[in-house]
# Entry
Amino acid sequence: MIPNQWYAVIESREIKRGEVLGVTRMGMKLAFWRTSDNSLYCIKDQCIHRGAALSKGDVIHHHLQCPFHGFEYDYTGKVKIIPAIGRNSKVPEYFKQDTFTIKEIGGLVFLWWGEPEIDPKNLPTIPMFKELTEKSFKYNTITDHWAVHYSLAIENQLDVVHLPFVHKTTIGRGNRTVVLGPGVELLDENGVNELQVWVRNEQDVGQNSIQKEIPRINNAMLYFRFPNIWMNRISDNIRIFVAFSPIDDMNTLMYVRFYQKGGLSFFRSFFGKLGALGNRIILRQDKRVVLTQNPKKSSYSMVEQKLIHGDRPIIEYRKLRSELKARIKSSL
Ligand code: FES
Ligand SMILES: [Fe+2]
# Structure
């Protein structure tokens, strides 16, 4: 995991008001809880008393109550009430569990994975694609669990060479095996690191693709923002979005959204469902192959893989990933 980053970890709608949700993310058991005034909090999913899962507890007003002996936690992770000593007795300061800074945007919950000493008021911009937070864009989500490190799932979405093979019956029809470009641009705006990718695939008529750079025409096709969100710009009105939520070092939960805007709401809901179904079929084709890859986690210094020019987006991703990790180490 790259430290000091905002990770998209779950969807907002997974936790309703007054509910608690227990999930494993970033290799840790976490409890997300939402109060009746719609504030969302995140705490390590383990009671400091005798270790029960707080995610099995209840939201009581502005507290999260442990299901075992009723200890009540506030949003800072402090125990405020221990029923067995009387509700009005003072609780010692060290009765406290770790909490995490989270923010909701675009129906996603972003978790700050970083150094505790950084002031939560001075955190960098959340990397969500702003256009997708527009009200006019509607989306349908599907989720899928992949037993690989999240970096490997990301690389698959930056892979512009696999289409005529993995997706030969769907989006890769037409035997366009030759990859022209791909063009890659790296942007850093307000600390948000973005990779933009564009490419042209052609049938093999004897051309040499290595010598051909392709110009970028208006918008790029693929957009990836560190550490874990990706967008495919299909047209002005359609986007595919993926959040690669790290469960732990060997497991990733994919949140795949089909976004669309414009048109009548009846057709939008029909196409939304169709789009989500299409995503599921395409994702299955990817998963079948990605799960067989070795090693299960990518790194920039990997010598056992012999890459080609079409892998440039993947190379740039690995490079920046290792740079971001090194930057943290040197700043410590
Ligand atoms: S284990 Fe939570 S209150 Fe006892
Ligand atoms: Fe694919």
Observations:
- Residues 265-290 form the longest helix (26 residues).
